[in-house]
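B., you asked whether I could sanity-check this one before it goes into the benchmark set. Here's the sequence:
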Amino acid sequence: MSDSAPRHAALALLALLSSAAAAAPAPLAKRAASAGEVLAAASDSDWRRLDPERTLYLELPAGRVIIELAPQFAPRHVANVLTLTHGGYFDGLWIVRAQDNYVVQWGDPEGHKPVGAGARQLAAEFERPLRGLTLTRLQDPDTYAPLVGFVDGFPLAADPATGRAWPVHCYGMVGAGRDNDVDSGGGTELYAVIGQAPRHLDRNVTLLGRVVQGMELLSVLPRGSAALGFYDKPEQRIPIRMRIAAEVPPGERTELQVLRTDTPTFLAYLAARRNRSEEWFKVPAGHVDVCNVPIPVRSAKSRGE
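And here's what the prediction gave me:
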C-alpha cells in the first residue's frame, strides 16, 4: 500500500461526515409564545380592576352589557352620562337602532323624556392634547393617523405634529350621538360599534367609553328595517335599564379585571397578536391593526377579590 492510501481514506471519511452534517436537519427555532401563553404567564400586577365609579351596566332582557367610561378623553360627556344614569334617565328607554356591520343605538327616539337637573347639551369632545398621555404605541402603520396605540386599554390615534390625540372607532367603542351641529350631543343618545371599525367616524363623534363585556348581546340584536337600521315599529324596540356599577349592591356587581396596556406583558401580547404562533397559522402576518387587538378581560371574583 502506498503512503497516499491512508491520506485518501481520511479525506473520504471527512467528506462522508461533512455530507452527513449537511443532511442533518437544522435545530428548530424556538416557537414564539401565543397570546394565550402570554396571558397565562401574566402576574396579578399586569391586571387592573374596573373602577365602579366609571363603569355602567346596560341591562337588557337578555343580560348585562358592561361599559367602561373614559373621562380622560371626554370628561364632560362622561360626567353628563353619569348624571343622566344616576337620575334614571335611561330606565324605560330602548335600543332603537341596530344597523348591520355598523352600530347599535339606544335612547329616547321621540325626545320626550326630561333629562333632569344637571344634564345638558355639550360641546364636542372629539380630541384632546397628546401631552400627558402614556401611549403604548403600535409599531405598525395606520391608514388614518400618523401613529396609534393604547392608553388605559382604549385604542387611540395621535398626530405628534399637532400634539393632538383621539380615541378611535374600534369594535365595542361607545359614543354619543349628535345632529349635524357638532355641539348638539351630550350623551342622551349612545351607540356601540358592532361591525368592522368605522374609522371614518373618528373625530366626528365624541367617544366616551367601550364595552368590556356583553358585546355578544348587542351584536346579535335584530337589524332594523328602516333607514340606518332604525326599528320602524315601537314594538321592535328593546327595553333597557342603565346603572352605575358603584350604585349597585356589591353582591349584584360583575367584578372584572382588564389587562393593563402599559406593561411588558402587554408588549408581549401585542407581539403575539402581530405574529400568531398557534399551529393553525402557517403564514405570520407581521402586522396588527389597532382595532384587531382585543383587550383581555377576566373575572375578579374567581381570584378572591
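One thing to flag: The mean pLDDT is 91. Otherwise nothing jumped out at me.
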